[in-house]
Amino acid sequence: MNASDRSFSIPVSAVKPDAGALLHAQGVTGRARPAAAEAAAIHLLVRLAAPSAVVREVSPKKFLKVFAGEGFNETPNPLEAVFSGAERLALFAVTLGQPVCDEIDRLFSVNDSTLGCLLDTAASLAADRAAAWVETERHRAWAKEGLRSLRYSPGYCGWHLSGQKKLLAHLRPGRIGLSLSETLLMTPVKSISGVVAAAPPSLHAFEPGFAFCAACKPKSCCSRKKEGPSLIMTGIPRRAATR
Ligand code: SF4
C-alpha cells in the first residue's frame, strides 16, 4: 500500500472488539459469558461503524514543523528525539463515521445509558483498533531490520492537543468526513489522529520521567518496550460507565 497520500476504508471486522475486551474496558472481571447487552452493543457497532483512514507520508524535516504545532509543546519531551531520529513518518487520521456517534447520543437521549455506555466503549475500542490497524500496516510496509513503527498522538507525551491543527491541515481529513473544531474536538468524535514513526527501538523506549507524566493514565511508554506495534495512545474521551 502506498502511504504517500491516500484515503481508504478499513474492514469493520478488523476493528470490532470482542465481548471480553468490552467487559475489560468497562471494568468488569470474572464473568464467564457475555451478557446480552454486550452482544447488542457489538452488533450495533458492526452495523453502524464505517472505519476509514487518511494517511500521508512526510519527510522528517517537514514533520518537525507539523510537530511544532502552535508552539505549546512541553519542553523537554521524549517525542522530539523519536521524530528527529525517525527514518519514515506517516501522518494519519481514522474515524468510525458519524452514524455510530449519533446512535450513542440517541441512546443517552432516551435514557438507555447501559447500551449507550457499552456502545460508547465499544466504539472507543474500535477507533483504537483502527489506529492500530494503520500502525501495523505501516510497520509491515516499512519493514526494515532495526526499526520499529509506533504511533503517537497530540495530547500525549508533551505533544500539545493543539498539534491536531497542523496535523489535520496536512491530511485534508474531509475526504473521510472528519473535521476539527476551534475547541480541538474532532467530529465524528470516535476519531484518532497522529503519526506513525519508524525509528530505532531505543528512541521509542523512553521512561515516564517528565513533568507531564503525573497526569498520564495509560503510561503506555512502559508497555511499548515490548516488540511490535501495540494498541496504545488514543485521544478519545469515553463516557463513564453507569453500572
Ligand atoms: S507516562 Fe505517559 S506522558 Fe509520560 S512518557 Fe509515558 S506515555 Fe508519555
Please specify the SSE layout and strand pairing.
Layout: E1 6-9, H1 12-15, H2 19-25, H3 36-48, E2 52-58, H4 60-68, H5 79-85, E3 88-95, H6 98-109, H7 113-141, E4 148-152, H8 164-171, E5 179-180, E6 186-187, E7 191-199, H9 201-204, H10 220-223
Antiparallel strand pairs: 1-2, 2-3, 3-7, 4-7, 5-6
Helix pairs in contact: 3-7, 4-5, 6-7
Bound molecules: iron/sulfur cluster.
The site of iron/sulfur cluster (SF4) has 12 residues, from helix 10.
Structural notes for this entry:
The protein is α+β, with helices and mostly antiparallel strands. Helix content is about 40%, strand content about 15%. The protein has helices at about 10-15, 20-25, 35-50, 60-70, 80-85, 100-110, 115-140, 165-170, 200-205, 220-225, and strands at about 5-10, 50-60, 90-95, 150, 180, 185, 190-200. Helix 4 (about 60-70) packs antiparallel against helix 5. The N and C termini lie far apart (about 45 Å). Bound molecules: iron/sulfur cluster. Iron/sulfur cluster binds near residues 78, 156, 208 and 220.
Bound molecules: iron/sulfur cluster
The succession of helices and strands, N to C, reads EHHHEHHEHHEHEEEHH
| Secondary structure tally: strands | 7
In the CATH hierarchy, the third-tier topology is known as NADH Oxidase
- Rounded to an integer in angstroms, the radius of gyration calculated over CA atoms is 18 Å
Gap between N and C termini, in Å? 43 Å
Strand arrangement within the widest β-sheet reads 1-2-3-7-4
Q: Approximately how much beta-strand content do the residues carry?
A: 15-25%
Helical residue percent?
Answer: 25-40%
CATH hierarchy, class: Alpha Beta
The major pleated sheet works out as: 5 strands, antiparallel
